Amino acid sequence: MGKGSTADREPRNGMFPNGMEYLSWGNGPKTLLFIQGGPGSAVPKGLMRGLFRRQFDPFLHAGYAVWIVTRRRGMPPEHTIAGMADDYARLVAEEFGGRVDLVVAESFGGMVAQYLAARHPDSFGHIAMVVTAAELSDWGKDVDLRMATALAGGDTNGAGTVFAEYVLPGRRMMWLRRLIGPLISRRLLSGSDFPSQDVLTEVQGEMTFNSRAVLPLIRRPVLLICGGSDQFFPRDVAQETAALIPDCTLIWYEGKGHLRAASSGRIAPDVLEYAGRS
Q1: HSE on the CB side for 234, CA within 13 Å?
Q2: Exposure b/e, 48-71, CB count within 10 A at least 16 = b
Q3: Which fold has domain 6-134+197-204+212-275?
Q4: What are the pLDDT digits (tens) for 163-204?
Q5: Whole-angstrom Cα distance, residue 29 to residue 45?
Q6: What are the sequence ranges of the domains in the chain?
Q7: Tens digits of per-residue pLDDT, 203-258?
Q8: How far apart are CA 112 and CA 36, in angstroms?
Q9: Reported pTM
Q10: Angle at CA of residue 187, ends 183 and 189, nearest 5°
């Protein structure tokens, strides 16, 4: 694959027959499946598309075709995170020949990936879970519930204000969050397609998520990348998560919260090094 080729720069997007939307770059011989965060999954558009594209550049140059795939549309309200993992496994079986070379899963997507690794170990070659753990903090549940409720109700300005809480927590910052919330909404959330019932289904799964009983069943090696100052997945829970997975490599991004760790330029080199070991 030629570095920076036109084919790599041109995105492909659409919907698989099972109702899962996708955005893809690259034509490399290896396949990377990216399971994005939530609650609410949508094909990146506008500024977010550009940010994702730059984040995946190193993988494209390393010979991967990158596929960002949403959760399926029209999930039943009782659909669980384990069920979402089964959806991705079926997708891999039906659309990717039964196996992808690398799974990179972030935040809520990492919750899904924990079940994917435990229940469908033959569906991937390597797996990296980023800013995720066995259970979401109470603070994280509260923030995500409020953001999901705003998104589901079409209140993108309200969702933007809650999103600002990811990086500006605390009551003293409320005035600033309200000030910049509409800007965040216009730059990051406008034009995104978040089906309201699917958003609520995801947040309901998140509220009850606890994978501690499942993690010891994972028999494949796992790379776990966590932020040292992540309020969504605190250090003690992340350490417990790594200890429960039989073969887990844990990397800390010290001093970084949830968003800063998730957007770190270190992720691609760390994941590529890990995937290249075997």
Answers
A1: 7
A2: bbeebbebbbebbbbebbbbbbbb
A3: Rossmann fold (3.40.50)
A4: 777 666 667 767 676 776 676 665 555 545 667 788 888 888
A5: 26
A6: 6-134+197-204+212-275, 139-189
A7: 889 889 999 999 999 999 999 999 999 999 999 999 999 999 999 999 999 999 99
A8: 10
A9: 0.88
A10: 100
